[in-house]
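Tokens as discussed.
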């Protein structure tokens, strides 16, 4: 029988948060992620993980306080559901999602929602998996889809009008990011150094408040890339992928 635990104010310092286990270069990101989570636990933020050394967890909170440009009432927003490596195919993702569904029902929520896409994209949940549990597409922006599982009649969540822009005024490569992922801090540093060395104009916009997150000019789950003012992807970049993307756009 699989054993799980939820992070709390009492255990968060001693527990790992799955994503960056044992990787020294991401420890600053882990610290920032934990700082962010400490401030979010009072909002009903849930981080539930398998009691094992691996990337196996689900993370969600009420849509009203979730750092995403989505409007809704009385829904839980699933930031991430991740089961990696040798833990795949053992029913763990099913158990994590079923826990979240039952938890939402017990709290009297109207349902759950999450960000996905028409075709599989990095760092987003797989559409078919959620559809198997009754999630349906309730809103769309380009290739991105908002999936929702509703328990009762009422208003379903939807993307904010600001998110539909998918465009900014700045023409230089610009990255919007939040502290939600422990990989972010290192990549911001790596990209900053690379761009400076190669003399590539690069701007970062840190989303550090709920208001900024709710008013993001694009689909945002944690990271968003813009080039020539246009949204190009939600993929967290390293120096190599950034260089490839910049060169491809030049060709």
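Sequence:
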């Amino acid at each position: 029988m699989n054993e799980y635990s939820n992070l709390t104010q009492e255990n968060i310092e001693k527990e790992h948060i799955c994503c960056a286990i044992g990787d020294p270069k991401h420890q600053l990101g882990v610290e920032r992620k934990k700082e962010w989570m400490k401030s979010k636990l009072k909002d009903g933020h849930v981080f539930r993980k398998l009691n094992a050394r691996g990337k196996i967890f689900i993370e969600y909170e009420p849509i009203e306080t979730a750092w995403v440009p989505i409007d809704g009432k009385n829904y839980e927003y699933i930031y991430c559901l991740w089961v990696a490596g040798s833990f795949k195919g053992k029913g763990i993702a099913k158990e994590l999602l079923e826990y979240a569904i039952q938890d939402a029902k017990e709290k009297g929520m109207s349902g759950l929602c999450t960000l996905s896409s028409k075709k599989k994209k990095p760092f987003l949940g797989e559409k078919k998996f959620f559809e198997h549990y009754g999630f349906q597409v309730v809103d769309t922006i380009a290739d991105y889809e908002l999936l929702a599982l509703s328990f009762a009649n009422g208003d379903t969540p939807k993307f904010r009008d600001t998110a539909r822009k998918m465009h900014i005024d700045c023409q230089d490569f610009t990255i919007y990011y939040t502290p939600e992922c422990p990989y972010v801090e290192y990549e911001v540093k790596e990209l900053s150094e690379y761009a400076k060395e190669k003399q590539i104009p690069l701007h970062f916009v840190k989303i550090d408040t709920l208001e900024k997150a709710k008013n993001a000019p694009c689909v945002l789950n944690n990271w968003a890339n813009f080039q020539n003012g246009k949204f190009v992807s939600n993929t967290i970049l390293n120096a190599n992928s950034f260089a490839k993307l910049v060169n491809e756009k030049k060709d």
